[in-house]
Design goal:
Elements lengths: L1 H22 L61 H8 L2 H6 L5 H25 L5 H20 L7
Helix pairs in contact: 4-5
């Protein structure tokens, strides 16, 4: 399972960084004030810095992706571990595997997956609003959302909205 998490991180984090760089006015993730520091892009997702080297329009909100490489700690200093529950559910479509492998609590499982689906839906809607018609990326994201939503509904015995 750790290999799947690492593989997902290796794919998702650079894609997320490129997406965020595209949102910047100058299409760069690093603010001009920090361009001379030769910071590596993969080191930019640190939350414990006084002044962030990332452009000011960026907000490193970990709720956008189910897996990020943040070294976050809770209020007691314990490391917060992220896992690829969203990817695992998409592949296996099994609530039981989410309990046994990803160690999600039954009480949190529906809410975590529902929140992830809501993020997928907002991303798909937003991308369709700004992309040209029949944009392949927008269509792909909409297809991912539709497939994920149908798997979610079937796993939890729900009827899909039309």
């Amino acid at each position: 399972m750790q290999k799947l998490v690492d593989d997902y991180n290796a794919f998702a984090v650079p894609l997320y960084q490129k997406f965020m760089a595209a949102a910047a006015s100058d299409h760069k993730l690093i603010a001009p004030e920090f361009a001379l520091s030769h910071r590596e892009v993969q080191d930019l997702f640190l939350k414990n810095e006084l002044a962030s080297p990332v452009f000011e329009g960026y907000s490193p909100d970990s709720s956008f992706l189910p897996v990020l490489t943040f070294d976050e700690r809770d209020h007691r200093g314990r490391k917060i571990w992220y896992n690829a529950f969203a990817v695992a559910f998409f592949i296996h479509e099994s609530r039981q595997k989410l309990i046994s492998i990803n160690q999600l609590r039954v009480s949190n499982m529906w809410y975590l997956l529902h929140d992830f689906i809501a993020i997928l839906q907002r991303l798909a809607d937003g991308l369709e609003a700004v992309a040209r018609q029949q944009d392949p990326v927008a269509e792909l994201l909409r297809d991912i959302y539709d497939e994920y939503y149908s798997k979610f509904c079937s796993a939890f015995g729900m009827r899909a909205k039309n």
